[in-house]
Description:
The structure is a single chain. This protein is an alpha/beta fold. 40% of the residues lie in helices and 25% in strands. The protein contains 14 helices and 16 strands. Bound molecules: S-adenosylmethionine. The site of S-adenosylmethionine has 19 residues, from helix 3.
Amino acid sequence: MQTFRDYMEAALYDPERGYYSRRIPTEDFYTAPELHPAFAGVLARKIAEKFAALSARGTPGPYSIVEMGSSSGLLAADVLKSLKRENPEWARALRYIVVERSRPRLLESVVTLSALHEGVIGYSRLEDVLPCAGVFLSNELVDALPVHLLEKRDGRMYEVYVEESGRTVLSDLSTRELAPMAEGVAPHLAEGERHAVNLEALRWLRVVEAKLKEGFLLTIDYGKRFGGAPNPPRTYHRHTIDSRLTEGKGLKDITASVDFDLLIGEGRKLGFKLHSYEPLGRFLVEGGIGDWINDDEGGGPHGREEVASYRSRAKIKTLIHPEAMGEAFKVLILEKAASA
Ligand SMILES: C[S@@+](CC[C@H](N)C(=O)[O-])C[C@H]1O[C@@H](n2cnc3c(N)ncnc32)[C@H](O)[C@@H]1O
């Protein structure tokens, strides 16, 4: 019997049979960079703005972008292209560091990105990155970290474990670290309700703090400030969501929404300043995603370009619409000043 956390870790990251060792992009779900390059375009503008802020403060360059959970480098490539087009002064001196746990994806990304930019470095662990100033970036990394799972039964909080057969059973908490979270959520959960606790996200944030000398953490993910409300994990397969967590091990994505309360709280403890926390739709609209909508116009009546343009606009709408990704996803920016 293993904790649900260990089961999820193996189901997602076993080097041969884990979901991420063979995920085919867009087959089970779309991530924002897979949907439209305008997402990367707005991020590139935000990053250029943050580099300008660091420079105005006198932080010595060159600055780095450290993208964590970068997969095959699609977002990195589009950010680099946008920066080169709109902010060549920042693009020139930039170091782009990709951090990806899957070796094949990491190798693929370093090869592709090195053709676009000279200063690309790849690591499989954030722990190995040298401390630097700039922007640490992640999209849908935190939701892919393995979570402990708590369940309320007979008025008490238990942890969920998985047997060899895939059957789930309840037992005591596997680590004392979970005790304050279990106590915090207990009054908010009804009998049988579950809540995912992402201790890995807290560890990740501590490493980010150690590696970011000065600058910003910009992390995008689906989730909200849960305030103790139930947060059961779910699976994605061929764009279908279900809650059968231990069926089809390695064939389905398993994920839990990000509890931004946890990240913001831990961030503050580590000395980060909360710069902003907002829905993705607002972030993209205020960041000028409209420019990509107008950019796509063209073609005569009912011509091919018009169809392409229509599809393209529909994808941008998916990114910003409140009933699509616009509200479900959040953008958190934490700021770290240089230590005195
Ligand atoms: C849901 S995918 C998102 C990929 C990409 N960021 C995107 O938006 O298309 C999560 C990625 O994070 C990677 N990952 C998970 N844990 C990681 C870790 N601790 N360090 C680096 N990469 C990690 C996975 O291998 C996977 O490629």
